[in-house]
Amino acid sequence: MNRHYDVLIIGAGPGGYTAGIRAGQLGLKTAVVEKAELGGVCLNWGCIPTKALLHGAETAHTIASSSSLGFSTGEVSLDIGKLVGFSRSVAGRLSQGVAGLLKKNHVDHLVGTATLTAKGKVTVDGETIDADHIIVATGARPRALPGIVPDGDRIWTSTQALIPDEVPGHLLIVGSGAIGSEFASMYRDFGAEVTLVELAEHNLPVEDPDISGVVRKAFTKRGIAVHTGSHLEDVVSDGTGVSATLVEGDGTRTELRADRLLLAAGVVPNVEDLGLEALGVARTERGGFIAVDEWGKTNVAGIYAIGDVSGPPCLAHKAAHEAVATVEHLAGVAGAEAVDRNWIPGATYTRPEVASLGYTEAAARELAKKSGHSISVGRMSFAANGRAIGMEAAEGMVKAVFDDTTGELLGAHLVGPGVTELLPSFGVLRELEGTAEDIGHVVFAHPTLSEAIQEAALDALGKPLNQ
């Protein structure tokens, strides 16, 4: 007789292991199948180790800029191997933590490769296992571009960028989304010359243009060359570096030479060899992701998909949130809440940081117009914030968009020091159906960066106090 589970999850990234934990908490007999490390890309080769390296980059910046505060540091050098070792140790520690959480919640961890063979049946390295509910959480991988094929040596993906044996003299980056921009910021602080190439008309394409514009200005000031509306042609990798032709929007062509090229142009879902086609599981026309509804259900009963494999935004916290929603729904939990992908927060750990929630100003204006409403936009620059000035980090702003009729928050867009930690205030406001007036009634401690949130709300109401 085959082993049987109430829930079987394929993949143990943030979506998969969270689904396993929640299912275990609900008393469901659960297994998680993973062929690599627990924690997936985010924990092992993405969000977590990147932030550890960015901590090193921030430290390098602090040391380099400390003379303005009266410190004399002398010559400073970076042991990149030691920093990479620290980053890997952080990832390893957290991966072990996932194993402990699965065990604590009585979730079986099956090591191997899983394939769906029939409704309610999965094979794991030859063993057939029965399951009432199957959740696919296999994630995604870096997308290759025509003519730019990662070779692990001169042409990198984010994986190689996390474990360099040396800091390249010149790093050429294709793609200025969160991944490309974070590595640009990081490697510049490590001392590399950095060139950032983006096909879209503005960097950080999913962000509000006001916000990405601040980052571009800051990057340019730091010596990072940013080319938007541009692409590369004739990319050639050899033993000593990479040659390419930069083609800009106006047709200008420039020959480039770099030590390394980092390809950061999005991701593709890990759907191969899962048996999805044979079972008729539908995929999206754009990107080939597994098509799901707001509960993670596919078109085939009993099969679900969560996280990156089910489509953008491809973010760890979105995967974890979907995991809870899907498991609670299939378990029949009263009050289970579906996922609204329009309200998944974004966080980019560049210098300055970027954080966003909801609709951009342009999208919010179109949304409100459909209801016959108008919007109010409030802004507060960190250049007028005492805490930011004292930190020598006064670049950036808080921008908030509200519906004039209902007062509800439609979007929040932040760029500046520590804004990834400020953004959840807007998330709570949205969840509690608060308004700009409600923010105005809160007493914010002074001096804090968070005061910019209140000032932006007051500005939207036409009554700012400090600008």
Automatic annotation (TrEMBL):
Could you name the domain of life of the organism this protein comes from? Bacteria
Provide the catalytic activity annotation. N(6)-[(R)-dihydrolipoyl]-L-lysyl-[protein] + NAD(+) = N(6)-[(R)-lipoyl]-L-lysyl-[protein] + NADH + H(+)
Enzyme Commission number(s) of this protein: 1.8.1.4
Report domain Pyridine nucleotide-disulphide oxidoreductase dimerisation positions: 344-457
| Residues the entry annotates as binding FAD | 51, 308
- Top-tier EC class: oxidoreductase
Any Gene Ontology biological process: 2-oxoglutarate metabolic process
Residues noted as binding NAD(+) in the record, renumbered to the chain: 175-182, 198, 266
Location comes to:
Cytoplasm
Naming one, the record's GO cellular component terms include: cytoplasm
- Obligatory cofactor(s): FAD
Supply the alphabetized keyword list: Cytoplasm, Disulfide bond, FAD, Flavoprotein, NAD, Nucleotide-binding, Oxidoreductase, Redox-active center
Q: Which family does it belong to?
A: Belongs to the class-I pyridine nucleotide-disulfide oxidoreductase family.
> By its UniProt entry, which NCBIfam families does this protein fall under?
lipoamide_DH
Recite the other comments. Answer: The active site is a redox-active disulfide bond.
What is the protein name given in its UniProt record? Dihydrolipoyl dehydrogenase
Q: Which organism is it from?
A: Corynebacterium flavescens
Gene name per UniProt: lpdA
